[in-house]
Amino acid sequence: MKILHLITDLETGGAEMMLLKLVQGMNKSEFRNVVVSMIDEGTLGPEFKKAGVPVYCLGMKRGGISPVYVLRLLRIVRQEKPDIIQTWLYHADLLGMLVALIKRIPFIWNIRCSDLKREDHSRFLFFVIHLLAKSSFLPEAIIANSQAGMLWHEKIGYKAGKWVIIPNGFDTDSFCPIVTARTALIEELNCPKNTEFVGLIARYNPMKDHRTFLRAAAIINELRPDVHFILAGRDVDYNNQHLVNTVNELGLNRVVHLLGERNDVNLINAALTVAVSSSYSEGFPNTVGEGMSCAVPCVVTDAGDSAYLVGSTGYIVPPSNPDALAQAVMEVLGMDIGEREVMGLSARQRIMEYFSLETIIEQYQTLYRNVFSNNRRKDI
Predict the structure, then answer these.
(1) Is 314 left (phi over 0), alpha (psi -120 to 50) or beta?
(2) Which has the minimum average pLDDT: 122-131, 308-317, 370-379?
(3) DSSP state at residue 115
(4) What is the pLDDT of residues 131-181, one digit of tens each?
């Protein structure tokens, strides 16, 4: 069975990383995968190729879908002859739907977020979302990676009854406790030997609410000047003037480190004393699951399925509330090492029990088998 995955781009993000892990782990004797990026190969294109997955690029510019790109995708579909088209993220859902309907190929959407704020996104994006809501009776299934995402989309008009919830899965072999990680990060950043690290690993995006994290960091810094704050992810670096200005305004230059996009996120996670998610909107946050896999206690906002993911193994605080965020982080920092270890190990156990990568990949494979067999029966 051949699956063609259409995604907006292949930069490092939650959806892109989940797609990469999925195609790397699927049963190669049963499934063949093809990936099409609407823009370009991005950072992850070479990783897909390394996994033996063909990668095509449509060369689209951001901001709109023109007939040219429909024709380009049609050519790829004619060449590859997929059995199913799986789309990832809204613009891909729209373009993939158009081509799948023309070619009469079953298609599946994949929704990765919830509770988007209009002021943080373009009018065109919301036009696309509402167009998809009107068309949501057409796909064979709509995957959501969170219960919160499904409920929000149903509220704005997406059809009930089409949903399959498949959360993100985590590679607990790569993301695991690493005893040397903290010392290595202390040496890299030239920090004092007793430094504790509190981290937010997330691309720069309004939904991730870096400002709330930094305002909480300023409160913590008043009480614990030995704590340093790690921010990593796409566009989270010293070229981001808005972020740098916020750090300067809050007087945090000495203790905040903007590491940008890293290929050793497992080591960064394992070096943390506390992993934080400060998002006001989420689906099912990869960065939290990766921190938990590394046996790091997590403090998260009650956004998307973050609270469900953490369960009783961490702290849940309201979104956009730096005081509550700072208080919860301080509680973890105030624990003795033994207490923190117990909390971290219970978080890792929760991931291994409920959100292992193998379990999640099998859920995707089962869905593809069902869609494929249902459509074969229709053809008879």
Answers:
(1) beta
(2) 370-379
(3) -
(4) 999 999 999 999 999 999 999 999 999 999 999 999 999 999 999 999 999
pLDDT tens, residue by residue, 53-67: 999 999 998 766 789
**C-beta of residue 80 within 8 angstroms of C-beta of residue 4:** yes
Euclidean distance between CA atoms 96 and 70, whole angstroms:
9
**200-215, pLDDT tens digit by residue?**
999 999 999 999 999 9
CA distance 283 to 304: 5
Supply φ then ψ for residue 111, to 5 degrees: -100, 130
* CA 265 to each of CA 62, 189, 207, 291, 334: distance values in angstroms, whole numbers, following the listed order: 28, 15, 20, 10, 25
The pLDDT assigned to 377 comes to 62
| Digit-coded pLDDT (tens) for 14-33 | 899 999 999 999 999 999 99
Place of tokens 């040219």: 68
Report how far residue 312's alpha carbon sits from residue 167's, in angstroms, rounded to the nearest whole number: 18
HEC-encoded secondary structure of 229-262: EEEECCCCCCCCHHHHHHHHHCCCCCCEEEEECC
What DSSP string runs through 142-159? EEES-HHHHHHHHHTTPP
Domains and CATH numbers, the chain: 2-169+357-379 (3.40.50.2000), 181-354 (3.40.50.2000)
Mean residue pLDDT across the chain: 95
Which residues in the chain belong to E strands, given as ranges? 2-7, 32-37, 55-57, 84-88, 107-111, 141-144, 163-165, 196-201, 227-232, 256-260, 274-277, 298-301, 315-317
